[in-house]
Amino acid sequence: MSMKSSATWVRSLTGAGIGAALLAVAAACGAEEPTPTALPTATPVFFEAGGASAAGVAAGEAELWEERQGGTLIFGSAKEVTSPHAFTTTSSVDGHTKESTWLEPLIQLGGDGNLYPVLATSWVPNDDFSVWTFHLRQGVLFHNGVEMTSADVIWSANYVMDANNAARGHGELAPLVRSIEAVDRYTVRFNMVGSQSSFPIIISDISVLPITPVDSLEPGEIQVRVGAPGTGPFKFDEWVPASKTVVTRFDDYWGGKPYLEKIVFQLIASATGRGNALRTREIQLAERLTPIFAGRVEAGEIGAIEVSPATRSGYRRVIFNVDSPIFGDIDVRLAATYAMDMRKLLDEAFFGRGALMDGTVPPGSVWEEVLLACCPRREGDPDKARALLAASSYAGEPIRLIVGRGQGEPVGESLSRQLRQVGFNVNLQVLESGVYDDKQATGDFDLSPKGGSWGGDPVIDASGRWRCELTELHYNNQTRYCNPELDSLIDAYYGLTSIDDKLAAYGVIATILYDAVITKHMGWNFTRFFGWNDNLKGFEHRGEGGYTRGPIGGGLWRVYFED
Hints:
The chain is of the alpha+beta class. It folds into two domains: 20-38 and 72-312 and 528-563, D-Maltodextrin-Binding Protein, domain 2 (3-Layer(aba) Sandwich), CATH 3.40.190; 315-525, Dipeptide-binding Protein, Domain 3 (Dipeptide-binding Protein, domain 3), CATH 3.10.105.10. The protein contains 18 helices and 21 strands. The protein has helices at residues 3-12, 21-29, 62-68, 92-99, 150-161, 170-173, 199-202, 271-279, 291-298, 330-339, 342-350, 366-374, 382-390, 409-421, 433-442, 458-466, 484-493, 499-516, and strands spanning 72-77, 107-109, 115-117, 120-125, 131-136, 177-184, 187-192, 234-240, 244-249, 262-267, 285-289, 305-309, 315-320, 354-356, 398-404, 425-431, 447-452, 519-525, 529-533, 536-537, 560-561. A seven-stranded mixed beta sheet has the order 8-9-10-1-11-19-12, covered by helices on one side. A hairpin with a 3-residue loop joins β8 and β9 (244-249). The longest helix has 18 residues, at 499-516. The chain is globular and about 70 Å long. 53% of the residues are buried.
């Protein structure tokens, strides 16, 4: 495949340009630093290390910063931060909160589909992609005042790869990396297991590899109440379970001081509650608002508020815990699969706004063609569900269906009604988000809805959800499904560079998952909106439901209040 066609197929997968085109460009051209696309002139960009004053304000920005700085932003969160731990809880709201404030990855995937430098300024493979060398940004300080070096990157990666630490990124990183070494103080070499052309995209957010100082956590330390020092624009200040997470401005941030003095991520589980708090200005920014609220804003019925849809978020599926006494039987899982009518769920819980899909791929993509060919949708069929249930091992035991309070409640109500209609005895448990996440991690459930978003590649995006996770706590693969053959196929997939080979391999992987019946997919709902008071300026999001600050803007780093 030529260099031109390689970049083209990556972009063609979604139409939105989500992919790792720069990875291929860097590899083919031998360039040491990927060249991002032209930056919008109105969008804040990273300041290069060394270009900031001692106070952390970039040259030419001091006067602007003086005008905009100050104030506390109260952010209405749909879910609480489950734990301030830097490595175990780094997805969904946990990940968005942490990566927008105090933790950073080496590199980051921008909303335009390109990889950009963050804590690393360049990343270069050898000829066969078996070694990746990362050059680190110099002059970056952790929140404890110590400069980041290659030793910190090596420690962080080794922490993730140690299964005893229950790091969320363990399933992605450990199978790929053979060893890590320091070339010098600011250069790190990852020696891979075989050829790993997709490695940069895999570590392009903190869900796999956040960077914290050497020995910032003890081996096996899972329960923490204080966030480890990071390198982001805000530093961890306080965490109150089931209530709030607070961060404060880090004046020595390598990219330039943020404007806000403080951000409080306040848990408001109800979408109605978040909307009302936004209207009364008890909060200034909220996530996951409803289409009804957004429509009223757009119609002018609610004033002084801006709204914006999260167009690439909202994937929905229901997972089975295959370690549970009930759903360890594949016939019971299959009966439950036919009991669940996802069209009804979409209509009842999401106002009918969305698209049904039997895998974590967007409608109209080339991945969808493969999925439809290998894995026909199991439509809701109550009669078939009753027959399968009658022939299975199920004897009327209560099924623990757990959902998160707020956005999970209508989903749980729809699912429990459908399951009861065919003969399941459902115990619906509505839980606070922290308890909900803990029960999923410990396996204290039988059935549970889950979310997701699209990152450009269904295998890379979701491989951690499928891999064997041989620890007591499962922060990633919460189905607890384990298939070594599937793990080997995923390992091989990471070394593929041809889109034809990837599509063929995805078909095999999707078929294995389909036959295993570990998930009932709904598809995409288009019902999530951000909203903010109109005197709050500079907020942007990247479409996938998150508010992570990116190299080409967005997030909370340069948000400010206008008088």
